[in-house]
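Side project, low priority. Logging it here so it doesn't get lost.
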Amino acid sequence: MKIRTTYNKILIKTYLVCAIFSIFFYNILGSWESRYNYYSFVNLGRQGILFYSLSVVILFILIFRCFLKYFNQFNSTLKFIFISLFIYFVVYTIVTLSNNSIQITLFENVSTTVILFPALFVLGFDDDIWESLNKIIPYITIFLLILFYCLVFMFWSSHGIVQTMNANYKQIFIYLITSVWFWVIIDNKKNKTKNIVLIMLLLASIITTSRSWVLQICILLFIYLFNKRGNKFIRIILAIIFMVILLITISFIFPDITENLLDRGFEDTRSGQYLIFFSSYSWDDLIFGQGLNAGYSYLGNANYSYFDNQFMFILFHYGLFPVIAFLIMTIKALFLKKSKFLGNMRYILQRARCVFPLIFLAYLGLSTYYQIKFDYNTVLIMIIIGRLLKNYSQRRYKE
């Protein structure tokens, strides 16, 4: 037992190393290209893909080990979902391999491994994985925050404060925000480091000029400040005053960025994508998906593979089942009675209920660059879900 436990601890740490190296190299090795009135970052190296491929292999090993160890603790619904997902994945992968290489099929952004993302919940059942993440994620968060600002200042020093698309620092931001979500959920302790990180995160969201990210970080900061001890009314007033002062201060420091953000206002940048998509496809085409190579004409691309709404993205390529599996597990985890949980897990459930609506907003396409993949972001989110399900399942299992 000790050997298996040790292996999982080593594997999750190795996975985190590969995941961070993948994020780092993918967003460092490249160049900026001027396109019309904005700049776009183009990745030029293969190291990021190499480390991402290694991280996927490690995830398969971890899933298999946790499946063997904790399958008896699953209820009938989880057992059905887990086994069905793997059968669905195997069938889809075999079909896809007939027209694509192993690299494209398993290790790219639209790979069939996306089907398995709900199965990552099983990692949350393992105590060693959970404890390792609790210790390491705060350090990863700080690293990603520093990396974000380094990339921002490197770009500004070379090109000035101008509009960007596909910016590398915006890609770093999505991993940073997921790390912060995880940290806020698992750790209820208030400390200066976390306070500084949240303030710097708000500034980072403004730098990305994403309206939804700014709104979500304000909500997250409000939740964090509101949960401090003391009179509720006073906490609400102080939280609002603090955020207003902070936003005003930031607008004075970076007037060009905030002006660009305000100019966008309530501009609709999403509905057109749905109209274009459904001019080529119907809802019936989304039941089993159109496969890895499916695309539609969008933004000048004849075969555009992506969709801002990540549930639509999965439906488009791999059908209804992975989305339903994810929703069933998430709803089940978040709407369990607090009385079913013991100790600190009650507080984790409470904070997860506050943070997961923000995660759903990101998945629904309100936040740019956020994508469901077999990657670092999805791993952290599904481990939270798995931990909540494990706490409840373990109690029933013992009874």
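Brief comment: Strands lie at 30-35, 38-43, 164-165, 296-298, 301-304.
Revisit when time allows.
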